[in-house]
Amino acid sequence: MSITSLEGKRFAQMVIQGATQLSANAQLVDALNVFPVPDGDTGTNMNLSMTSGAKEVQNHIQDHIGNVATALSKGLLMGARGNSGVILSQLFRGFGKAIEGKESLSSAEFANALQTGVETAYKAVMKPVEGTILTVAKDAARKGVTAAETETDFVKLMQAIVDEAQASLNRTPDLLPVLKEVGVVDSGGQGLLFVYEGFLAELKGEKVSNQSSLPSMNDLVSAEHHKAAQDFMSTEDIEFGYCTEFMVRFEEDKQSFVDEDFRQDLSEFGDSLLVISDEELAKVHIHSEQPGDVLTYGHRYGSLINIKIENMRQQHSSIVGESKPVKAPAKTQEVDFAIVTVSMGEGIAELYKSIGATAVIEGGQTMNPSTEDIVKAVEEVNAKKVIIMPNNKNIIMAAEQAAEVLEMEVAVVPTKTVPQGMAALLAFNPSATVEDNKQLMTEASKQVKTGQITFAVRDTTIDGVAISKDDFMGISEGKIVVSDSDRQKSSKSLLEKMLDEDSEILTILYGEGVTEKEVESLRDYVEEHYEDVEVEVHNGKQPLYSYIFSVE
């Protein structure tokens, strides 16, 4: 039986199926990350974003498809995380606007709405790049519009859209050279294809299922979190502040996995430990004060995937109704100006506070805050004018989306790194307007160079740099420039490429797992070889990134 008209209830189930299909394959999407860094999170971001949209739809299932699409748009808008999640939200924001007054859709109306969504998403991106999720969405929508000229059956129409999305995804390496160099297709495009496959499965009367070989840990984690909420009288009583989840894919050349020993060792890092394992994988949940040390331990057994770190104190505040953003002051009398920023690492957060940040949202790599997280943090500071600094290129779009939602004078300073955020903060002028501050702070952020040291999660070659799994990579201005099995050697090589005769100040932020002896050795090296460079050292306590360097 053909489907020639699409009403709200069926579309709602398509959305739920799309979210399920994406969730089942989020780890695969994460694994397509071009850079071999331990924080590929496109799948995680798209999954969390789509899940937020699906939850809103579940609360508004009805025959009127325009109303269902509006609910989807709202859920995606507020739940959007990372650039991929924001683009996904914009695709369905445009889709929803195109059909908001319609009770049902013909195949042509559905295809045209997808096309409107593509146009909306392209407008939301300042510099659209082909070979990404945008290209896959554009090609699929264009095929849908053409097919709908003669095809009235939704199953056949959606099949054509899915087929073209797959073909477009296969072409992404030809449009984006770095994808071809690394040998992957675009991760965001792959995520969108999974959503569309879920749509098609629902139309065909099929059900998608979670493909993971491990049982779900969600119910166990939920029980642990509620138990923890009952165990503590207040948020401040929480001893282990970071909810850390990850998976270890076992490897032959790593330490042999013994379940009992693994659990016993991990128990030393915190509480609420849950471990599920089979012959290939171990899935871990733990509350710890030093999540970086937990990840370092897990890395002994194999590759780390699907990493997620969340602030438990913030979670507990939400459970018990305190509802305050991380490190933000209690809501008081309205102030004139406030700065809301994002950071990962307690030491970095305190540093930001010391130089002028009003509130710090816990986030960064592996844990991009959602649009809603940013909105709530801004509302909590109770200010007439607000500057938002994302400090991460994958959070900028969510911050800009939050600024659109907020009913106050807000500007986003598009800082991409922690050092850029520090430089921007120091340029803030409380007497200037929001727009003037945005300009001043943006210009200041461009005056610093950023370097990072982290470990590689796979073998690859990027921009001529041969990288072996577990090497320590040196990243300068977002580009991998060195790789070495020795962390200190890699750090010195990176600094050699960053420091020159014009360099005056080097700020070293060292992360979890780095000893004070290592930091002092690195400081001595710089002072010996670069006499005119002033060196400042701070314990950033950031996970995953051993060092963050700022050069001015």
Q: What labels would you give this structure?
A:
552 residues, four-stranded antiparallel beta sheet, 21 helices, alpha+beta
How would you describe this structure to a colleague?
With 552 residues, the protein is of the alpha+beta class. 49% of the residues lie in helices and 19% in strands. The protein is built from 21 helices and 18 strands. The chain has helices at 8-24, 26-31, 42-58, 65-79, 82-99, 107-124, 133-148, 154-175, 177-182, 187-203, 218-231, 259-267, 291-298, 312-319, 346-354, 371-381, 396-405, 418-426, 434-445, 487-498, 516-529; strands at residues 6-7, 104-105, 242-250, 270-277, 281-288, 302-311, 335-343, 359-362, 383-389, 409-412, 449-455, 460-462, 465-467, 472-476, 479-484, 505-510, 534-539, 545-551. The strands form 5 sheets. Strands 15-14-11-18-16-17 form a 6-stranded mixed β-sheet, with helices on both faces. It has a 4-stranded antiparallel β-sheet with strand order 4-5-3-6, sandwiched between helices. The N and C termini lie far apart (67 Å).
Across the major sheet, the strand order is 15-14-11-18-16-17
Unreliable residue runs: 210-216, 219-235, 318-329
Count the E strands. 18
Classify the beta-strand content into a percent band. Answer: 15-25%
Rg from C-alpha positions?
Answer: 24 Å
Architecture blueprint of SSEs:
Layout (H helix, E strand, L loop, with lengths): L5 E2 H17 L1 H6 L10 H17 L6 H15 L2 H18 L4 E2 L1 H18 L8 H16 L5 H22 L1 H6 L4 H17 L14 H14 L10 E9 L8 H9 L2 E8 L3 E8 L2 H8 L3 E10 H8 L15 E9 L2 H9 L4 E4 L8 H11 L1 E7 L6 H10 L3 E4 L5 H9 L7 H12 L3 E7 L4 E3 L2 E3 L4 E5 L2 E6 L2 H12 L6 E6 L5 H14 L4 E6 L5 E7 L1
Parallel strand pairs: 7-8, 7-9, 9-10, 16-17
Antiparallel strand pairs: 1-2, 3-5, 3-6, 4-5, 11-14, 11-18, 12-13, 14-15, 16-18
